[in-house]
Amino acid sequence: MIASTLRFLWENKMFLLAGAWTTVQLTAVSVALGTVIGTVVGIGRISKNKVISLAAAAYADFLRGTPLLVQIFLVHHGLPAVVSRYVPGFHITPFISAITALSINSGAYVSEIVRAGIQSIDKGQMEAGRSLGMTYWQTMRHIILPQAFRRVVPPLGNEFIALLKDSSLVFAIGYNELMTRGRLLMTKYFMFFETWVAVAIIYLCMTMAVSRLVRFIERRMAVDDQS
Amino acid sequence: MIRVENLHKYFGKLHVLRGVTNHVSRGEVVVIIGPSGSGKSTFLRCLNLLEMPNEGDIYIEGVNVVNHGANRVDINKVRAEVGMVFQSFNLFPHMNVLRNITLAPVLVKGISEDQALKEALALLERVGLSEKAEAYPSQLSGGQQQRVAIARALAMRPKVMLFDEPTSALDPEMIGEVLDVMKDLVSDGMTMVVVTHEMGFAREVADRVLFMDGGVIVEENTPSELFSNPQNPRTKAFLSKIL
Ligand SMILES: Nc1ncnc2c1ncn2[C@@H]1O[C@H](COP(=O)(O)OP(=O)(O)OP(=O)(O)O)[C@@H](O)[C@H]1O
Ligand SMILES: [Mg+2]
User: Fold this and answer.
1) What is the C-alpha separation between B44 and B177, in angstroms, rounded?
2) What proportion of chain A, given as a percentage, has pLDDT over 70?
3) Which fold has domain A2-226?
4) Distance of alpha carbon A155 from the chain centroid
5) d(CA A190, CA A225)
6) Residues near ligand 1 with C-beta < 6 Å?
7) Three-class SS of residue B192?
8) What is the C-alpha separation between A183 and A170, in angstroms, rounded?
9) What are the residues whose beta carbon lies below 5 Å from ligand 2 (ion)?
């Protein structure tokens, strides 16, 4: 079994690695966009403005409380169904759907991370900034967020790893990443066990690489960060 | 310079300031004493609008800075003119000493980095920390951090400096260096309002001592009068405990 799996992996290495590379790109772009969304939503969640904080909480609750697969279908099939009524011929590619669904989803989880990160910063920091005449946003940007981001690197890394695995769900809309390629190989060669062990091994390598990368960044920041 | 009229502050149902009225003249040094929970910090924080009073007015150089009804003021502008030093220093840990000092003048007043840097170095010399310009807060002792915090507040060229128990978080051997910097400010004519338990400091430099209890100013007088001849029984009781 081991030998046949390794042989299978070797023979299809280019095909699978191309899928793995697509998975990495998809995840990286989605986490990057998700971080932007999550930062905005996370700041919204601690807003004193009730409308903003409720809207931000609703966003996070909806996306964390529904299955990612449902969200992917909603973006890929649901959205065009509605929009094409007003914009004839509106079409959405699996690529766009995949990135949209994953970024929106990860934005919800990141918002939680960002909110916790901001709230972990001593209240005295905001007060010190404000007492110097800086506005709320100036203090956020120069004082609070830089400190918060240092603290959220480990949970953001975990989010990256979670999304890397969850991105496999986009096979359901036919986006050509690692999972989809696994299924293609399965239907081509009918080597079920070998196929999925091979795919699992590749995912494992990717998640381990990411967690090493995160630990490296953490260590680097500990060196830079004198505080 | 600062006129406070009938100030009230509630935290929910808790009535913390119950009608504070006072006047601080230019160049005056006012020390506030009082038991824990009497509203000293809240009063000070109202003066630079970190807390919004629920009732009453604060005039800084004749301008009412409390937002209510028709009166609208730019809070940030008020704060830029009122320096505040906290018990817990609150330096920005991710920035070195120089950056701590130059950030606000550059962002808020729009002065050039070069100019801000020059002024920061002068201020550091004044508080005796020139050699720590590049250090990060975590590399400084408590006393040094508090001196940087004072320099940071001064960099905005405030008209008034507020101190909320600036030496309470310090080891005893560091209290002196911070008080010395504050005394230097006094001799420079800075208007100051200081909440402190340092009675020696109050005796030496205060023009007036306010005794607060239960959200009001119970008694005020020159330090020598207040300490040697308190009138109100609550003042007497408090002083007998700490002197
Ligand atoms: N943000 C807040 N929310 C609710 N209650 C508060 C808040 N800040 C202060 N209080 C309460 O208001 C009262 C007065 O507090 P304040 O900090 O002004 O007292 P203080 O005289 O400075 O006391 P201390 O000597 O202990 O510093 C206390 O009962 C305190 O618990
Ligand atoms: Mg206090």
Assistant:
1) 23
2) 98
3) MetI-like fold (1.10.3720)
4) 12
5) 53
6) B 11, 14, 16, 34, 36-42
7) strand
8) 12
9) B 41
